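Quick one, probably user error.
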């Protein structure tokens, strides 16, 4: 594929909200690579730390969209997608440190696999610990593994098993490209033809599940989604969401419910409501016990209580409690 100065091969779209320190690392890594012609678009969702003001001076080649309010991740991505010019569009979180080899591997995969609509690579923490980068579409088991009260325990068991295998000298099986249900929007490369056919992200998802919904629509149009375990980028992880930890927890469960409303049957939604209800009531019991036994009257404990109660309200009284 022959490129011109006017047509970048890849448009990198980054939605930023108050993570300028991490964004600078990400942009420096992108600026330092000379392998692939890139167009870099940053959408700033009304950051209060001067991101939109500082970025044009430090990175004049970056195309900046400065919003006057926080429009959410999905709408921010849509703004970047709408003005992008590349043959491929790479959604990238500002708290990632990309490397050119990973980007090149994703481009090469899409160019040689025409049935693939989107591809992603392994996301790893700074210490090398792999993250959950992909999943099957939402169901009972994915809820337990990704969202439930026991999900941290499941992830811990998996980490322990990985360490045991390493100490026993058992090599991790490096599989080839793997077909998956959906990929995290923290690093998701999509071909332009797919966006033209499927459309942009659903901006009704303010944050979370927008990537799941998008990949589901790609599947419905006959496209395949792939994960490349041989390529990886560092993900500092949740630098934006940690600023409003409990509000983002509420948003996660709100978006999950919205996904079920849109993509699943009524019975599936009722099943999700039961799961979430049992899960949240269990959390309330544990939080209350912690308050009684340890005399934990901290603001954190109260915020957790409020978040869990709000999630229950949004599942049982959605019309009165959803934004």
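Nope, works fine. Designed sequence:
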């Amino acid at each position: 594929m022959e490129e011109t100065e006017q047509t970048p091969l890849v448009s990198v779209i980054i939605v930023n909200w108050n993570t300028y320190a991490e964004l600078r690392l990400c942009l420096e890594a992108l600026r330092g690579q000379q392998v692939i012609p890139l167009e870099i678009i940053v959408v700033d969702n009304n950051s209060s730390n001067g991101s939109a003001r500082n970025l044009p001076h430090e990175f004049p080649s970056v195309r900046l969209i400065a919003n006057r309010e926080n429009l959410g991740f999905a709408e921010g991505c849509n703004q970047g997608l709408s003005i992008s010019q590349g043959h491929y569009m790479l959604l990238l979180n500002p708290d990632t440190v990309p490397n050119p080899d990973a980007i090149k591997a994703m481009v090469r995969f899409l160019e040689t696999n025409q049935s693939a609509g989107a591809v992603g690579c392994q996301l790893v923490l700074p210490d090398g610990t792999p993250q959950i980068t992909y999943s099957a579409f939402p169901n009972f088991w994915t809820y337990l593994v990704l969202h439930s009260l026991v999900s941290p325990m499941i992830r811990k068991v998996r980490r322990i098993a990985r360490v045991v295998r390493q100490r026993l000298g058992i090599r991790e099986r490096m599989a080839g490209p793997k077909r998956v249900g959906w990929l995290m929007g923290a690093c998701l490369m999509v071909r332009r033809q797919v966006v033209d056919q499927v459309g942009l992200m659903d901006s009704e998802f303010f944050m979370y599940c927008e990537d799941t919904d998008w990949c589901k629509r790609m599947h419905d149009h006959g496209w395949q989604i792939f994960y490349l375990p041989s390529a990886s980028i560092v993900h500092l992880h949740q630098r934006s969401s940690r600023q409003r930890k409990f509000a983002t927890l509420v948003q996660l469960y709100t978006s999950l419910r919205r996904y079920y409303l849109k993509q699943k049957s009524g019975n599936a939604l009722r099943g999700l409501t039961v799961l979430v209800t049992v899960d949240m009531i269990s959390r309330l019991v544990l939080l209350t016990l912690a308050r009684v036994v340890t005399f934990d009257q901290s603001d954190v404990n109260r915020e957790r209580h409020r978040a869990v109660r709000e999630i229950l309200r949004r599942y049982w009284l959605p019309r009165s409690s959803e934004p």
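The CA atoms of residues 96 and 123 lie 9 Å apart.
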